[in-house]
Amino acid sequence: MLCVENRLSELAELWELPAGVPAQLRTILDLVQAEPTSITTVRDPERGVDLHVADSLAGLAIPALREASTIADLGSGGGFPGLALAAALPETRVTLVESVGKKCNFLRRTADVVGLRNVEVVNARAEAWWDGIGSQEIVTARALAPLNVVVEYAAPLLVEGGSLVAWKGRRDPSAEADGVVAAEIVGLEPAEGDPIPVETSIHGAEARHLYVYLKVRETPSEFPRREGMARKRPLQGSAAA
Asked: Is the N or the C terminus of the chain less surrounded, counting Cβ atoms within 10 Å?
């Protein structure tokens, strides 16, 4: 519908996207709507253009992400932010890491239909993607896990000097504190300043934030831990004792 097209045009202007990207993003939204399997609860393009696309493109506010040559999106699910960032950054190699096979099938089909030749889909859990260790300049994660768990997932995958960008909701001091503890253990540290507010036409800036962590030293050899341990025994305040 026209309102979706208009919003995509606004986003293209805001983020200075290459020509043709709005049409690619529209196709992604249409494919999400048509997909028969449960890849996401938000399928309507009129809602998805903000809840999915605008939210994903907010990551472009981070210079390191915009300039990266490699990005790994963990728990890609319905393709956000991974597919949206791949469209916006056609020179960047974007790996979509997803453990659910039917979601991987959707991601591969969508990348093929949209013509995203810079996309690779990996059917694995983040902590079991051994080929990815030490290979990524940026790791992204949206609606995947608590901050401390995401930090642990991302650290082994990042090159030194790389960054984790995590999409989260309202600020939670307890979760932020656990994220700091986990980062210290695995060789990351929070970027200077507060988390970056994300404002779209659907939710205000107080409801969404981007958390950025920098990899400042080598991740200890015991990471990644075996599958499931990051959630079962998360790194948190007590782990620093």
From this structure: C
Asked if 50 contacts 33 with a C-beta cutoff of 8 angstroms, the reply is no
Tokens 């030749």 -> residue: 117
User: Does the predicted TM-score (pTM) go above 0.90?
Assistant: yes
Tell me which DSSP letter residue 227 carries: T
Q: Which domain holds residue 177?
A: 2-240
Task: Evaluate whether 45 touches 80 at the Cβ level (below 8 Å).
Answer: no
Q: Per-residue DSSP letters for 162-189?
A: EEEEEEESS--HHHHHHHHHHHHHHTEE
Interatomic CA distance for residues 81 and 179, integer angstroms? 21
Taking CA 16 as the corner, what is the angle to CA 212 and CA 59, rounded to the nearest 5 degrees?
15
Alpha helix ranges (H) inside 187-234: 229-232
What is the number of structural domains in the chain? 1
CATH number at residue 230: 3.40.50.150
**If DSSP states are collapsed to H, E and C, what string results for 59-125?**
HHHCHHHHCCCEEEEECCCCCCCHHHHHHHCCCCEEEEEECCHHHHHHHHHHHHHHCCCCEEEEECC
